């Protein structure tokens, strides 16, 4: 790329913000950018991209992921500590997380951008309010369209850029566990604990400006980022904006982990890429993996009786009927601390995920994702064993 500092003596080459130029280039509508330089990490034949093998994890896998041996994990020479996992979800199981992001996570006690405009109470469900046309005003119908972000766990304060003890709600155990599992498979940290997350809901014209994530007290713990729905271009840089970032494509199901030198690297999302419905993972009207009669690796660790989870008879539970409110205490609580309760929780969550995926109708979620990209961005806030008293 041409030296953009040429002819501008006021700009020191070291300080020149090449990242911003790249962001503007990929954001531009007219003329649209040339996407041929955007790296498709899973198919790239560039010598800078390397597929790596992962390690046998110490944790058992949560339901819905392909066996870790089959994961396609890539690194890039210019982004040490950056890992890209090409959609490791079993067919049909991305929907579990998509539903969590659209239907569950925007509910109280979590915070979202709509709090500035309307008073949401316990039990209000933005997705359901947006669906029911007869009882509510037309403004309610657009609530889900106005959703831009949700925060979980320690709620990131956008103004102060701080986490504080008083802005905290329980971090959902399933998201904590799946993040720990991912970090474990990559061999990054035995003590990872998800304590905060930002869920971003991108519209087709949304962008995320160049930034680095440094509000956490623990800046060594990796950052885990999940993409669902429409594709995006992510610009991945270094710790200085004077370095040109690498543009990479992110698609539905892809997971990025930023660790080591990449943990504090500048990154941005300059563009959402319209992805034809036929190219989205669910276009083939796929059934959950287990329904295809395949005995997969993950089934070896399933020990629970799916009919009796959390004291409920699951054979009576059709979550498509929206009758899963009784499960909220189970799915919205933190991961149990002691290992016996954690094992019990683990059996229950696996059955819950299976049932939730098999019994739900995801058509409306798929429709929503024809225009939306969701990103779940998970962080550990504290060093192991520390809390606010220790900072
Ligand atoms: O949307 C993405 O892929 C990145 C999101 C991000 O960087 C953030 O929330 O800090």
Automatic annotation (TrEMBL):
Keyword Hydrolase appears in the UniProt entry: no
Record: residues binding Fe cation: 211, 213, 267
Residues of the Fe2OG dioxygenase domain: 193-290
Pfam families on file: 2OG-FeII_Oxy_2 (PF13532)
PROSITE patterns: FE2OG_OXY
Gene Ontology process terms (BP): oxidative RNA demethylation
Residue stretches of biased makeup (Basic and acidic residues): 287-300
Note accompanying the cofactor annotation: Binds 1 Fe(2+) ion per subunit.
A GO cellular component annotation in the UniProt record: nucleus
InterPro entries: Alkb (IPR004574), AlkB-like (IPR027450), AlkB-like_sf (IPR037151), Oxoglu/Fe-dep_dioxygenase_dom (IPR005123)
Name of the protein in question: Fe2OG dioxygenase domain-containing protein
High-level lineage: Eukaryota, Metazoa, Spiralia, Lophotrochozoa, Annelida
């Amino acid at each position: 790329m041409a030296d953009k500092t040429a002819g501008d003596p006021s700009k020191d080459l070291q300080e020149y913000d090449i990242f911003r130029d790249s962001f503007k280039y990929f954001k531009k509508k007219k003329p649209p950018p040339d996407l041929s330089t955007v790296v498709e990490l899973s198919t790239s034949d560039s010598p800078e991209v390397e597929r790596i093998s992962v390690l046998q994890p110490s944790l058992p896998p949560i339901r819905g992921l392909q066996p870790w041996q089959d994961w396609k994990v890539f690194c890039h020479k210019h982004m040490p500590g950056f890992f890209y996992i090409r959609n490791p979800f079993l067919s049909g199981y991305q929907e579990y997380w998509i539903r969590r992001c659209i239907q569950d996570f925007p509910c109280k006690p979590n915070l979202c951008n709509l709090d500035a405009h309307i008073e949401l109470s316990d039990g209000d469900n933005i997705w359901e309010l947006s669906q029911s046309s007869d009882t509510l005003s037309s403004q309610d119908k657009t609530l889900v369209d106005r959703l831009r972000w949700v925060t979980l766990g320690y709620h990131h304060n956008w103004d102060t850029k701080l986490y504080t003890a008083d802005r905290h709600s329980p971090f959902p155990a399933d998201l904590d566990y799946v993040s720990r599992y991912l970090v474990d498979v990559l061999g990054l940290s035995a003590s990872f604990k998800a304590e905060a997350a930002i869920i971003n809901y991108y519209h087709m014209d949304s962008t995320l400006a160049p930034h680095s994530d440094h509000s956490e007290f623990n800046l060594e713990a990796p950052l885990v980022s999940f993409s669902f729905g429409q594709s995006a271009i992510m610009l991945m840089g270094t710790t200085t904006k004077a370095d040109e970032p690498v543009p990479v494509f992110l698609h539905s199901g892809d997971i990025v982990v930023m660790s080591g030198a990449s943990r504090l690297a500048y990154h941005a999302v300059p563009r959402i890429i319209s992805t034809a419905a036929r190219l989205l993972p669910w276009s083939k009207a796929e059934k959950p993996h287990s329904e295809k009669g395949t005995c997969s690796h993950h089934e070896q660790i399933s020990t629970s009786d799916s009919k009796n989870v959390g004291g409920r008879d699951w054979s009576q539970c059709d979550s498509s009927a929206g009758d899963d409110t009784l499960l909220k205490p189970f799915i919205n609580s933190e991961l149990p601390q002691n290992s016996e309760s954690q094992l019990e929780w683990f059996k229950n969550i696996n059955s819950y995920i299976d049932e939730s995926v098999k019994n739900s109708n995801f058509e409306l979620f798929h429709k929503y994702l024809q225009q939306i990209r969701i990103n779940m961005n998970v962080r550990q806030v504290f060093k192991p064993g520390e809390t606010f008293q220790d900072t």
